[in-house]
Structures are given as C-alpha cells and as structure tokens.
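Ticket closed. Logging final result for Small ribosomal subunit protein bS6m.
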Amino acid sequence: MLYEMIGIVRPGNLAEVKEIVLAAGQIVLRQGGVIRSVDNWGIFALPRTISKAQQLHHNGHYFCMRYDASTATQQTVKNTMSLDPRVIRSTSVKLGDNKLETLSKFGQINWLNSAV
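Final structure:
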C-alpha cells in the first residue's frame, strides 16, 4: 500500500527532524517497504496551540514522507511516532493499493458540462 505520513516535530533543531524521519524510514525499510519521497516543509505556526509532553507548542516543523509498506508496518510507524515526545502530531493516509489503475486515478476531476 502507498501511504503518506505528515509529521509535526517541535521546532528549533533540524537534527531532531532528521533523526525522526530516519527512524521512521528505517522501520519501513527493515520490514521490506520502499520510501518514495521525503519532503521538509519547514517551520509553520500551528492552527491552534497543542499540548504535548507537558509543553505548549505554537509552531512546528512539518515534514512529509511517502512510502510503500504493509498495513502492519504502517501501524508500527504510527505507534513509533505517537510514542516519541519530540513529535507534536503525525498522521498517515493510504493513497493507493500499488495498482497502476488506482494510482492513475489521482488528479482526475469530473467536470459537469451542463449549464447551471
């Protein structure tokens, strides 16, 4: 399955972000998955103040990682991210089932051609 994980790490230290992405990537690779891309989105203000590990966070360092992995591997990555106190939030979305027909459907828009 193709997954996209977006994570928010406490800001201030780029090395922490690299360590967290490396840890998640190693889990995926050890269990036979493939990492498609890793994007560093930078530091942004959070939509609202978030409390994590007895700290209030107003800003976060965002990253995005796309990877192919099994459902069990995705669950392991999710659990690892939720237990790391440096991670403010993370979420994963399943993008496809590795079939070309499914992946090619992303981006298509069904337009209504009738006049309103």
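The mean pLDDT is 87. No further action required.
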